[in-house]
Amino acid sequence: MLKEKKLFLFDIDGTIAVGDELLPGTRELLEHITGIGGKALYITNNSTKSRKDYVKKFKKWDLAVPEEHFVTAAYAACLYLKERYDGKKLFVLGTRSFVQELKGWGLRVTEEAEPDTECVVVGYDNELTYEKLEKACELLFREKIDYVATNPDLCCPAPFGFIPDCGAICNMLYDAAGRRPEYIGKPNRKIVDICLKQTGFTSAETLVVGDRLYTDIACGIEAGVETCVLLTGEAKQEDLADTPYKPTYCFENVEQLYRAVIL
């Protein structure tokens, strides 16, 4: 039941915000969560921004959110890469912010197709150039090189509709080089597991809230927690009939979710 929830894991784009606009009801819901002794964490697959960038973005909405409350796909990728590729060279196709975040973890990062590169890392890159794609393809044609990506989302909500996300970039690379990456972000349950470990809340007290069935809702299902889809982003009401990723709850928007939570 919604009244039992204390840990709310929110997607951002298309869920509580679109572009630079915070959606109605979000502020009230966050205040309610704090009031009941709960926590709100943000589990976005958007790897264009570091956690520090998100702290600044939320400040513009007059929301003071500490850095550790953002468990992004980029952050999860940093944990994963530090564990497996510490000291090894990584080619990164991503934004300058993503590159700097990886370097901040002490990882060896290159943006060139260097001969001793051991892994190709792809993120959602709104600074994408054809030159980056060409270098990634050159590396992916090498037999013994690993390949990981932050998230499989095909599109990202924009004020006018949608724009290509990391999954779409990886599909281009697949069409050219015939390689699929290991995705670190949602629907990988790793992000939910990080949040549970960080906060100490139980699975029964946790709710994943998002706008995508195949990432947000699938992630919650994989992690064994209840889920809520909001129809302010990619998912539409008609999608619920055929999806294998059935959410526990469905609301038109975050404002409706807030009303249901306080009932």
Automatic annotation (TrEMBL):
- Name its co-factor(s): Mg(2+)
Alphabetized InterPro entries for the sequence:
HAD-like_sf, HAD-SF_hydro_IIA, HAD_sf
Q: What are the record keywords, sorted?
A: Hydrolase, Magnesium, Metal-binding
- Cofactor mode of binding and number, as noted: Divalent metal ions. Mg(2+) is the most effective.
Give the main EC class. Answer: hydrolase
Report the EC code(s) recorded for this entry.
Answer: 3.1.3.-
Which SUPFAM superfamilies does the annotation name?
A: HAD-like (SSF56784)
Quote the record's binding site residues for substrate: 186
- In this protein, the active site sits at 11, 13
A Gene Ontology cellular component where this protein is annotated is: cytoplasm
Q: Which domain of life is it from?
A: Bacteria
Question: Which Pfam families does the record associate with it?
Answer: Hydrolase_6, Hydrolase_like
Q: Name one GO molecular function term.
A: metal ion binding
Coiled-coil intervals, chain numbering: none
Residues annotated for Mg(2+) binding in this entry:
11, 13, 211
* Matching NCBIfam families: HAD-SF-IIA (TIGR01460)
PANTHER family noted in UniProt: 4-NITROPHENYLPHOSPHATASE-RELATED (PTHR19288), HALOACID DEHALOGENASE-LIKE HYDROLASE DOMAIN-CONTAINING PROTEIN 2 (PTHR19288:SF46)
**Protein family according to the UniProt entry:** Belongs to the HAD-like hydrolase superfamily. NagD family.
Name the job this protein performs: Catalyzes the dephosphorylation of 2-6 carbon acid sugars in vitro.
| Protein name in UniProt | Acid sugar phosphatase
Origin organism is: Diplocloster agilis
Task: Give the taxonomic lineage as stored in the record.
Answer: Bacteria, Bacillati, Bacillota, Clostridia, Lachnospirales
